[in-house]
Write a structure and sequence with these properties.
Blueprint (H helix, E strand, L loop, with lengths): L1 H20 L26 H16 L7 E7 L2 E8 L2 H12 L6 E8 L4
Parallel strand pairs: 2-3
Antiparallel strand pairs: 1-2
């Protein structure tokens, strides 16, 4: 309890000191401000968050001893994950979906894996 209170007091002191000192330079009214860049919706842009999430998902599937040798593709768009490819059993399909679903950042999973026993 005391440690938490001490942390809050220290944070408040640091914040007030930074405000008093003035860590940023003041904006002069006559100085031209840079124009903000327009926000463009473009489907061809891959977001860094999605790329990181895709890497984590692939690593998660590669570390699973049952799924590492299966042909599974992962696609991520705004936290929505689509897994496709082939697995050997319905249990593997369900396992892959659950592994992907429990990764932080995943909003929803479209499990489009096909079940094809080995020949």
């Amino acid at each position: 309890m005391w440690m938490r209170a001490t942390r809050w007091v220290v944070a408040a002191l640091i914040g007030s000191a930074m405000t008093t000192i003035g860590c940023g330079r003041p904006i002069v009214a006559d100085e031209p401000r840079p124009r903000p860049l327009p926000i463009v919706a473009d489907d061809t842009v891959t977001h860094a968050f999605d790329t990181r999430l895709e890497i984590r998902l692939r690593d998660r599937l590669e570390l699973d001893s049952f799924l590492r040798d299966r042909d599974i593709q992962v696609e991520v768009a705004d936290g929505l994950v689509r897994i496709s490819g082939q697995v050997w059993t319905p249990l593997e399909k369900r396992r892959a979906g659950e592994l992907v679903r429990h990764v932080a950042g995943v909003i929803d999973v479209a499990n489009q894996l096909e079940v094809q026993p080995p020949q």
